[in-house]
Design goal:
By secondary structure, this protein is α/β, with parallel strands linked by helices. Helix content is about 40%, strand content about 15%. The strands form six sheets. The protein has an eight-stranded mixed sheet, sandwiched between helices. Strands 2, 3, 16, 17, 18 and 19 form a six-stranded mixed sheet that branches. A three-stranded mixed sheet has the order 1-14-15. It starts with 11 loop residues before the first strand and ends with a helix.
């Protein structure tokens, strides 16, 4: 999708490349190549001679010319991007979080301790009850009680208060030690042990196995001590201001817990920070969920070094399209009161501010950082541009409205589906989208999975992958998606993308739409018809309408997935007037006049479906997908025991997918099957 800003200088990049211009191939060669190309699209298998291995993706020009955000200044000191960058940013955020609040509170503590010290010294000097009484009355206006209290009562109350003041005094003295130079308690694993060796102002706890469980124990221990301090501070303040009322405050402070701390008081607590890797978290989702469900304000910093999705050889890619990808953002958002930040390290300022905001939040916090010190920081910008790792902040306390708690506006060209850039190629400008497929091609072990399309085999059926994903289902048949690459001659050429890449792009696109929908206000649909004008028996509630809309969206997505997977084939119409006499072009939506019987007679289709078994290549294409129709004989060659076991549509699809083109759908057995006119037209070239 072109960007409104694509003409801006910030989106224009210089290259030394030339456009590949060659004569078109002869018809026979053209047809053979496209047959191979269609098979590549379905299977993802490419010969080394056809592979894009050794080429570079066109978006590399964008990545290499992006303005860098480093060196970044941390406390007026320059910081480059390297393996310790996220930990330096965390250290700075911890220090900033504690610095101002801590110093102010230490001053208040010292003042209270001085006042209590003076008061207790005065009390020690007096031997008479009158003196004790005078001290008490001076601080808490006890003189008004002398008219109703006996001398013995006054003495007993004075001793109780004296013990309370001494206990509070000792707790406050401990608090001064608590607010020394320490800023946090960091719990991490052995891998990060050396990373925190320079954290002089933090307590570092290295845990071998159960980081999450250990963090909860440490929190309970540290929070109890801190709560006792705040309790003493509150009591001392009330005493020194003469506002402590025994009947009111004694019972309150007997049951005082950290849940009664104010937000300002919580800011004074040294954060308990877990630093771990995404892999560890995903391996321990049960303990992680249990920790988050306690809603204790523990801070979790997750380091993610996975720059691209790792393939799982044990999972069929068609099955993978129906699986959910493990997304930390989706998991954390199920805990609605948890602060969440996600960002790559290409924008250190965004990360630094987010870390500080997460520390300041009185709620649990999770900060998810994409960190790959072995690559240039500009490379991480590609992860954001391709929607592989979008930036997102969710602050549960920022607003009462759900969508206003989200902020995704810091993403590259946030208003577009895919960012768009202009490349200057020779004498012309080429606008290209930065898709997830382009991002994957930045890896040499990934780009070799693409198939180069030489200029002589170009066709209008080659469609950029961004446009391919936007096409309606009926226009996908026969088209092959591509991205731009540069060959060893510095020529810009097209590289075909396999179906499995299309699926991964679609998954990233759906994830991006999910984030955008969360952060966008959903405006109600305006309906002109008054509810009273609708008959009672067909009125639908708002909840039902929302459910129907959700189902409609799900069905639309399912249809798109089906189209992507089925890869319905059509004949190729090459560019520049090249035509195939033996393979005429067939439009997917051709309307044929007449009944199915009339069409059957006009097309001359054979009555029974059959297979030229002697030409079968045993590719498993038909037997895997339509095992209820096709079987192998003793020579492992396909045949059809009973064509009525499947639908005519399945027979046609099997014929279209057969690389040996040895399946003949014949005539439909069920004349009531839907879309027979179109199906029989598609079956013509196989019968």
């Amino acid at each position: 999708m072109p960007s409104e800003n694509s003409a801006n200088d910030d989106h224009v990049f210089e290259t030394t490349w030339q456009k590949n211009t060659v004569n078109r191939a002869e018809e026979k060669e053209f047809k053979a190549f496209w047959k191979k190309l269609r098979q590549f699209y379905r299977t993802g298998k490419v010969k080394p001679t056809d592979s894009a291995n050794g080429t570079i993706p066109a978006v590399s020009a964008v990545v290499n010319q992006l303005p860098g955000a480093y060196p970044y200044k941390v406390d007026d000191q320059p910081c480059d991007y390297h393996k310790d960058t996220p930990f330096i940013l965390l250290k700075d955020a911890l220090w900033k979080h504690q610095r101002s609040n801590k110093n102010q509170f230490k001053t208040k503590l010292n003042d209270l301790i001085a006042q209590l010290s003076d008061a207790l010294a005065i009390e020690k000097e007096g031997d008479k009850i009158e003196k004790t009484y005078d001290f008490v009355s001076e601080l808490i206006a006890f003189d008004k009680l002398t008219e109703v209290l006996s001398k013995k009562d006054v003495e007993e109350i004075s001793h109780e208060r004296s013990a309370r003041l001494k206990e509070v005094f000792n707790d406050l003295k401990k608090g001064i030690d608590y607010f020394g130079d320490r800023t946090a308690t960091i719990i991490t694993n052995e891998k990060n042990k050396t990373t925190f060796k320079d954290y002089q102002h933090a307590e570092i706890i290295v845990v071998q196995t159960d980081i999450l469980g250990q963090a909860k124990q440490v929190f309970d221990d540290r929070m109890k001590a801190f709560t006792d301090l705040i309790k003493a501070y509150r009591i001392a303040t009330l005493e020194m201001e003469g506002n402590y009322v025994l009947e009111t405050h004694q019972e309150y402070f007997e049951h005082f817990s950290w849940h009664q701390l104010s937000n300002d008081e919580m800011q004074l607590f040294h954060p308990i920070v877990i630093v771990t890797e995404q892999s560890y978290l995903f391996q321990n989702l049960g303990p992680f969920f249990s920790l988050m469900m306690t809603n204790v304000p523990i801070k979790v910093v997750v380091i993610n070094e996975q720059l691209a999705s790792e393939p799982n050889e044990g999972v069929n890619w068609e099955d993978a399209t129906r699986r959910y990808r493990e997304e930390l953002v989706s998991m954390v958002l199920s805990f609605r009161k948890t602060f969440f930040l996600q960002s790559s390290l290409d924008e250190p300022d965004y990360v630094a501010k987010g870390l500080l905001k997460g520390l300041e939040s009185p709620t649990p916090s999770v900060v998810h950082l994409l960190h790959a010190p072995k690559v240039d920081s500009n490379f991480l910008a590609g992860a954001n541009a391709s929607r592989m790792f979008p930036r997102l902040t969710y602050d549960p306390l920022s607003n009462d409205t759900w969508h206003q708690r989200f902020d995704s506006t810091s993403n590259i060209q946030d208003a577009t589906t895919w960012p768009s850039y202009v490349l200057k190629v020779a004498a012309e400008q080429l606008e290209i989208p930065f898709t997830y497929a382009d991002y994957k091609s930045l890896y040499q072990d990934k780009i070799k999975e693409l198939m180069v399309v030489p200029g002589e085999f170009d066709s209008e059926l080659l469609v950029s992958i961004s446009n391919y994903l936007d096409l309606p289902e009926e226009q996908l048949y026969g088209k092959i998606p591509f991205i731009w690459i540069v060959n060893d001659k510095d020529e810009l050429v097209k590289a075909a993308v396999p179906n499995v890449w299309v699926v991964s792009c679609l998954e990233r696109l759906e994830s991006w739409k999910f984030i955008k929908e969360l952060s966008t206000e959903q405006k109600p649909v305006q309906v002109d018809v008054s509810p009273t004008d609708i008959p009672e028996n067909i009125r639908v509630s708002e909840e039902e309408l929302a459910r129907i809309e959700e189902e409609a969206v799900a069905k639309a997505a399912e249809r798109l997935i089906t189209a992507l997977l089925d890869d319905e084939d059509v004949a190729i119409e090459p560019m520049d007037g090249i035509a195939f006499d033996d393979e005429p072009k067939v439009e997917a939506d051709v309307e044929v006049d007449g009944t199915p019987e009339e069409v059957l007679q006009s097309t001359g289709l054979s009555e029974q479906a059959w297979v030229e078994s002697e030409n079968c290549t045993s590719c498993n294409e038909c037997t895997d997908k339509f095992s209820h129709i096709f079987q192998y004989n003793g020579d492992k060659q396909a045949f059809i025991p009973d064509p009525t076991k499947g639908t005519y549509e399945e027979l046609v699809k099997a014929a279209e997918k057969c690389p040996a083109e040895c399946i003949h759908p014949g005539a439909p057995q069920n004349k009531a099957e839907k879309n027979l006119e179109k199906l029989m037209k598609r079956a013509e070239k196989f019968n």
